[in-house]
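Session log. Operator J.P. requested a structure for one protein chain; no other inputs attached. Running the standard single-chain path with token output.
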Amino acid sequence: MDLRSALRNIHNDRFWWRKTLIGGALMLTIIGYPWAEGMVMESLDNTRKGFPTPLPPWREWATRYLIGLFAILIDFVFFVLPAFVIGLLFFCGALITVASEVASLGWLAPVSLLLLLLYELVVFSLSIAPIGRLIYVEKGRPEEAMTVQSLRTALDPHARRPYAAARLRSLPAYLPVLLLGLASWLVGRTDYPGALPAALLLLWLAFSALLYAHLVVIQLYAATERVLRYGPSPVAR
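Structure written below.
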């Protein structure tokens, strides 16, 4: 599946814009973020079953919140937790420096930041988090998606290149998120009247665009998983 096909699946739902705006508003509250991720997971499940459209309606709030919370935990394990570990190592190094009164370790902070950025880039490039979500949907066990199985699948020679291609195809979907986020930050820094409401509006649109990007991503990865499992369709051939 190419990016255009993924976008078409989303836009075939005539209420896609309303559903993503509602999800963006929920994400903006932070505590409502799991609801949006729960919608993404339900859409992923539907896509794997052959029903990529329409997008899931907003319903079953309690169940969706729990599903989304586990999906966020997958991202936390692979993206956020290592950042805490690197930050802890930096703190310990700085503490040792102060306590022992040795020469300044000014290089420690930039090196730690560089290591963190490299790690995040590698994990993002390997598609470990989306693969973990595929495992979560298939097995129904989020704890299994948080193990080395996700990494093992991402590094499988048979799957590595198709998933890398899916990641590359998904990158343009994140461009509106970056532009809207940057616009919100720039507007929020100004002193013009109405700057704060405008910045919040742009931030809401940025979160909505992020939800839209996640919906695009799961379309691409579900299609890639299907090709890896069953081979390309006759049309693709």
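Operator note: The chain has one domain: 3-230.
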